Structure formats: C-alpha cells, structure tokens
Amino acid sequence: MADDSQPVEQYNGALGVSRAFVAAHQAKTSIIRWNDDLASRYTDPGTVNGAEWCTGVLMSENLFLTA
Description:
Layout (H helix, E strand, L loop, with lengths): L18 H7 L6 E2 L4 H4 L10 E2 L2 E5 L2 E4 L1
Antiparallel strand pairs: 1-2, 3-4
C-alpha cells in the first residue's frame, strides 16, 4: 500500500478532503520556515526559499523539539 500522507501545511486536496476543511479542522500548531533571503546568501539556494518546513512539539514556553 502506498503512503499518500501529506504534511498539513502542504496538503493539496488530492486525498478527497478539501484544503479549506483541513485548514479549518487540522491547523498546524507551529511552523519552522526557511529564511526567505537564501538567494542573497548562497549561489545555489535550492527550492526551499521561504517554504514552510518541519514539524515538532512544544515542550515548554521556550523549547520546541523537532525530529
């Protein structure tokens, strides 16, 4: 069986549930975003400039744990 799961922040609606429904009922709790100025820092910044990335859990008021 193929893994067709998608991150909440990148869900495209292909799994039958609308993007609006997912946004309203399964909101992300936190987000880590790549800097949006990578092109000014690197000659080859890749394709993640400004992209929302990664998940984690808030362990305390100032501690966010990621994989």
